[in-house]
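Lecture 7 notes: from sequence to structure.
We start with the chain below.
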Amino acid sequence: GGVREEGSDVVREHLVLALEAGFFVDYRRAGLREETEEQIRSIIRKGPVYSDVSSVRQICSLLPSTSPFDVWAVRMTVAIMMVTTGYVRFTLAPGPSRLPPPPPPPH
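Predicted structure tokens for the same chain:
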């Protein structure tokens, strides 16, 4: 990876942190496709993960193929789940959402 890819990784990581802090992030525009998010959510809900989101590496290992982008996609999906469902980091805890709904897709 060159400087451009490394810069993109830094930006993506900052987007995850911003979302976790309660800021609106257009994660679709950042590249997280709905299909990818649903696939990751499904992995998180089932065994052997069972909603334990402490190991991004374990979640990534259950994806059909893993790229550096997938690591970000897992981190972003976990952040989305954390904020929208009241997750407390690494555990499930019900609570109010601080995240506005994503914008509708362009027509």
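Points to note: Residues 90-98 have pLDDT under 50 and may be disordered. The chain has four helices and no strands.
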